[in-house]
Amino acid sequence: PLNLFDPELFQLHYSPVFALDVKIASLLATLVAIPSTHALVEDGALENPTASTRQGLVRGTRVHSRVNAFRGIPFAKAPVASLRFMPPQPLEGTELARDGPVRNATEFGPVCHQFHYRTVMGNVLTETSGQSEDCLTLNIFVPRAKVCSRDRKPLPVFVWSFGGAFGEGGGSMPLFDPTNFVAENRDIIVVTWNYRVNLFGFPNSPALAAQNLGIRDQRVALEWVRDNIAGFGGDASHIVLGGQSSGADSGNAMLYSHADDAIVKGIALQSGTVQVIGAAVDNADAEFVRVATAVGCADATDRARELRCMQGVGADRLHHAISNDTLNEFGSPSGGSPMVDHEILFTAQEYESRGKAGRFARVPTLLGVTDDEGDSVMNWSPECGINKTASAIISASLLNCNIALESQYRHLNSVPTWRYRYTGVFPEVTPYPWLGSYHEVDVALLMGTYDRINGTAPQRNSTTATASRYYQRLFGTFVRDPAKGLEKVYEWPTFDPSRRTLMELFRNNTVSAELEEPALYDAACQNPSPIPWAAVGAPAPSC
Q: The domain 18-280+339-423+431-537 belongs to what CATH superfamily?
């Protein structure tokens, strides 16, 4: 059995009330042995395994002694020419057979057109595969087969969606590489994907019958996974959706928009809920009009003609038109964002009524925030840091209070929910001394890519490496059994706002877990401070 709680690695702190009371010996005696491999792929012991999809065979590659990867697999038709600004179109027939009878899926596909934030994480949030409008691909990471495994039980599937404020991101970014997560858990398949961002994914033209294309891309990708994951050894009836920031926002949104057909049996939300999006209600097409004007397509009297003109403009020219002129001082990309369409996204009032009434897919939920979310979402300087007052308000009002709200909706509707708060500040993932546990830092520990931020690889027994394995196993436990895993394995009680049920992780930069009263962080949500949006792009403070 996999030892999830090695007493030499994990210090469990006990609260006097509702203690975790993890009993190591009993746990190890009752854990079911986790199979080391499972895949319905051919040539599992070779360097280039193959798998079957409805559109044809794909050939992957070995990326770790325990992991095979199938990368750059299209899940929809290329959104180019007349399909630009259109909803994603499912593949047909044998469209994957581009390279002959077996499609080469050994390299990441390009990410969708985008511009990058001036992030404290540097190059780990820069794609390694180029950019293209033909970008709707996904990547599947499978535990390597060491023995014939055709008769084994299909594996649970964890689909993870990247963040980036709907302006940037993609599966080939080093931070989001799930290889180490798969290697550590050994019995979980992980899927990552691309979706359209900025104006390409959120054009908001009134001439369009469908909006919020970037979220629609994710839904079609999820349907592709459901229909094809068996060919990779996965269980189509056991898919857990996860994501961070806008990836979490999107996942949460799909639980509301597809309440009766969620596909997934659980969801993990890192630093994001649908309320964080703040989808536009009025003047949503302003950026589309600005770019259309820049490329000579604007037509206020015939918006359909304007749209056709925009579909005919070269992608690089559109990219340039969205580009530098719309970047604020923080460097965040503008160029299109989600809007309320009453189909994919709703108003805040609608989410409140739906949330209270349980009109969402009521699947088990794991959700949480980091302690200092705002530290990495505003203008900064290496020497002088950020406006810490504004950062604290962003952390509380925008992220924590919306996580608290979704937790409350689930508690009201008896949905099994576990809520955490990541508080660690580990040196390998903290490139500047003024940074706390900032927005997105937990992704580095979840994926095991913490060594790529500072370019240093800590020893396996370092605190950072140990915390990463802990975090990976925590999420792995939820993926294996979303309804009961965390309670059975960790004796972590389901969320209750009146009890010590909020798990505080890595306090004082130790590998620890302690239950706290949610009110410790949620009291301010009764009268939250207004979010200081002007401070986000304001010049960094002077030393």
A: Alpha/Beta hydrolase fold, catalytic domain (3.40.50.1820)
